């Protein structure tokens, strides 16, 4: 959503809107992680009838340092559609996870919440909504709402950790006095640390006829800032909308600062005119221009459908506003433009290209993308994309140019699934690096009893300015499964794995694994069911490879290892299963280790099984894992279809 969904006709900035950021979660296990530590989480919600719901959230992360915990509960009381009361309360202990920001696609990061230790906090919220028409209390549309939210300074979750106390509260009401007259009122307070923004608004909309609408609004704004420049102002606005036929709609808005707090509140008079025109088959053009005390702005967006299969689109935003972005006081959009097209050349060929330019106060960027998708036959897909972009930054940071290309291909049929992608990109200028990445997967069913699967992932980064920032990762495996379609007694599985992995650069302190490995693993597993109660299985695996304890440095050491295991399962009362496994691990120059693994499972329906167990050994049956920290409890879940 580029702009807030608001009924307000007044603006605080020439172009108001949200900053857009891509969020991604990564999971990792640092060195020094105690195998006795556990990470547990639960989230559940249950409706008791149609009017009451109770939910609970619980997370406990045992760490070698400060443990993290989250406990929460929520209650929903619902009288009908659009009428409800929600209450939520949660608390956290410690910092959930480090939060990083990257402006180059994830090649480098800056941490946003570093050094925040020994902290705890609560988050509470209450929200009430009422739809009076649904309740049968009114004939016209009448709704009301109220809310209160408070987040303590020490509250921490993965996607929200500002280290500032935040509180929001407010109420609003909307209603139809007559079919032609609507009113809206809203009061809200937002506090962040020692700063706050208080707003009170009243507006009315009068539909003169089916084509003409007149609106009026009065809004009071009070800003309490940390720099002591507190101010309060009152804005009044009038908007006129006129629809001409079924294709054209025009509007004009004028806002006036009627109280500037004796000059402390910066004048915010503004005049805005705009419109939208619909034409042809789903084609449109919209424009808006405004001028005021706080700057001038313009917006233009259009989509033109040349044919049912070919459309071009574009958008342009311009603003003279150079103030810093602040989500509490100054939501705004940056100057920029977008131009592109989508073209279905035939049933087998699609074309797309787009150019984007953005201008921020201290930097600007220009990017171009061109690509095509091909469908040469039933089940086949091919494609490519080319990118070129430039980022201009402050002189001390330097400019960066990026070039990129990608190829995709695949096939899908009843017996075969294949998909591949190859990407290349090169950065030059202030950052100089080259990166290749590829992902590939393959699955083929020879018959109802035998199938093979394979996967190959590759990534390599070379940094010309900092050789230590280079990285390489290669993972490939191919396996087979033989399960006779006319018998459930036998099954045989095999897998070959190749892995070359250079450990990542440190991002959070020193506790990052710093060993590189190049490994080949061959494993076979067989299962035999003599009857419906007993199941016997065996596994044999061999690893040939080397490991070095140091990133891109150090001597390689032989890591040859053999693993073997025998397993027995016994079914009790049809849905319960007991498990016992004997394990053996032999490491060249590292001795021999043995032990057992025990567990119990339960069937939940025909397609899902869940269980718990305890591994009395310190090693894993995954021979690409070199850690001896696997002793302890485990959760087992198996699904089939």
Would you kindly provide a written description of the structure presented here, covering whatever features stand out?
The protein has 641 residues and is mainly β. It contains one helix and 36 strands. It has a 34-stranded antiparallel β-sheet that branches. Strands 5-6 form a two-stranded antiparallel ribbon. Strand 15 and strand 16 form a beta hairpin. The N terminus is likely disordered.
What's the average pLDDT?
88
What's the Cα radius of gyration?
31 Å
**Shape category:** globular
What share of the residues lie within helices? under 10%
Name the structural class.
mainly beta
Low-confidence stretches: 1-5
Task: Describe what is shown at a glance.
This is TonB-dependent receptor. 1% of the residues lie in helices and 62% in strands.
Give the SSE layout.
Layout: E1 39-48, E2 52-61, E3 68-80, E4 83-93, E5 100-101, E6 110-111, E7 120-131, H1 132-135, E8 142-151, E9 166-178, E10 181-192, E11 195-207, E12 212-224, E13 231-244, E14 248-259, E15 270-279, E16 283-292, E17 295-307, E18 310-319, E19 335-346, E20 349-359, E21 364-374, E22 380-392, E23 400-412, E24 416-429, E25 433-445, E26 450-463, E27 471-482, E28 490-501, E29 516-528, E30 534-548, E31 557-558, E32 561-572, E33 576-587, E34 591-603, E35 608-615, E36 632-639
Antiparallel strand pairs: 1-2, 2-3, 3-4, 4-7, 5-6, 7-8, 8-9, 9-10, 10-11, 11-12, 12-13, 13-14, 14-15, 15-16, 16-17, 17-18, 18-19, 19-20, 20-21, 21-22, 22-23, 23-24, 24-25, 25-26, 26-27, 27-28, 28-29, 29-30, 30-31, 30-32, 32-33, 33-34, 34-35, 35-36
């Amino acid at each position: 959503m580029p702009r807030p969904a608001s009924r307000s006709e007044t603006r605080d900035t020439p172009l108001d809107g949200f900053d857009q950021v891509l969020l991604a979660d990564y999971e990792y296990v640092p060195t020094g992680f105690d195998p006795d530590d556990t990470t547990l989480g639960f989230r559940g919600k249950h409706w008791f009838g149609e009017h009451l719901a109770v939910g609970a959230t619980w997370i406990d992360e045992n760490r070698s340092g400060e443990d993290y915990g989250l406990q929460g509960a929520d209650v929903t009381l619902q009288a009908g559609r659009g009428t409800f009361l929600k209450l939520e309360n949660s608390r956290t202990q410690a910092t959930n996870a480090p939060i990083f920001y990257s402006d180059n696609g994830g090649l480098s990061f800056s941490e946003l919440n570093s050094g925040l230790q020994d902290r705890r906090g609560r988050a509470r919220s209450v929200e009430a909504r009422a739809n009076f028409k649904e309740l049968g209390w009114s004939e016209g549309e009448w709704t009301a709402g109220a809310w209160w939210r408070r987040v303590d300074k020490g509250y921490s979750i993965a996607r929200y950790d500002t280290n500032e106390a935040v509180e929001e509260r407010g109420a609003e009401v909307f209603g139809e006095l007559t079919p032609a007259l609507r009113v809206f009122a809203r009061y809200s307070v937002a506090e962040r640390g020692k700063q706050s923004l208080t707003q009170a608004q009243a507006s009315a909309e009068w539909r003169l006829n089916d084509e003409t609408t007149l609106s009026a609004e009065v809004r009071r704004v009070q800003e309490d800032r940390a720099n002591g420049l507190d101010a309060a102002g009152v804005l009044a606005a009038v908007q006129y909308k006129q629809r001409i036929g079924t294709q054209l709609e025009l509007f004009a808005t004028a806002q006036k600062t009627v109280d500037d707090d004796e000059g402390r509140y910066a004048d915010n008079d503004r005049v805005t005119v705009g419109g939208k025109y619909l034409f042809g088959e789903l084609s449109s053009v919209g424009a808006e221009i405004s001028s005021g005390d706080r700057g001038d702005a313009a917006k233009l967006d259009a989509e033109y459908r040349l044919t049912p299969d070919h459309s071009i689109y574009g958008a342009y935003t311009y603003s003279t506003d150079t103030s810093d972005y602040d989500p509490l006081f100054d939501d705004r959009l940056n100057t920029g433009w977008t131009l592109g097209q989508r073209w279905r050349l035939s049933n087998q060929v699609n074309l797309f290209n787009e150019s984007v330019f953005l201008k921020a106060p201290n930097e600007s960027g220009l990017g171009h993308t061109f690509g095509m998708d091909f469908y040469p036959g039933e089940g086949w897909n091919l494609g490519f994309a080319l990118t070129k972009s430039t980022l201009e930054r402050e002189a001390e940071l330097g400019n960066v140019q990026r070039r990129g290309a990608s190829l995709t291909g695949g096939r899908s049929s009843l017996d075969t699934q294949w998909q591949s992608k190859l990407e290349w990109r090169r950065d030059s200028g202030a950052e100089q690096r080259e990166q290749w990445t590829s992902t590939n997967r393959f699955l083929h069913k020879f018959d109802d009893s035998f199938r093979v699967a394979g996967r190959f992932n590759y990534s390599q980064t070379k940094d010309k300015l900092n050789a230590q920032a280079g990285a390489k990762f290669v993972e490939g495996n191919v396996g087979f499964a033989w399960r006779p379609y006319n018998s459930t007694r036998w099954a045989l599985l095999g897998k070959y794995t190749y892995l070359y992995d250079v450990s990542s650069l440190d991002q959070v302190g020193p506790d990052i694994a710093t060993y590189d490995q190049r490994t080949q693993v061959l494993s076979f597993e067989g299962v035999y069911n003599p009857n419906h109660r007993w199941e016997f299985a065996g596994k044999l695996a061999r690893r040939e490879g080397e490991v070095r304890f140091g990133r891109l440095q150090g001597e390689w050491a032989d890591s040859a290892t053999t693993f073997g295991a025998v397993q027995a399962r016994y079914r009790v009362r049809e849905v319960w299963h007991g498990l016992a496994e004997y394990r053996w691990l032999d490491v060249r120059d590292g001795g021999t280790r043995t032990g057992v693994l025990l567990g119990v499972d339960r069937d939940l329906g025909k397609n899902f099984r869940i269980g718990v167990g305890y591994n009395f050994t310190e090693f894993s049956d995954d021979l690409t894992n070199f850690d001896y920290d696997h002793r302890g409890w485990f959760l087992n879940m198996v699904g089939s279809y």
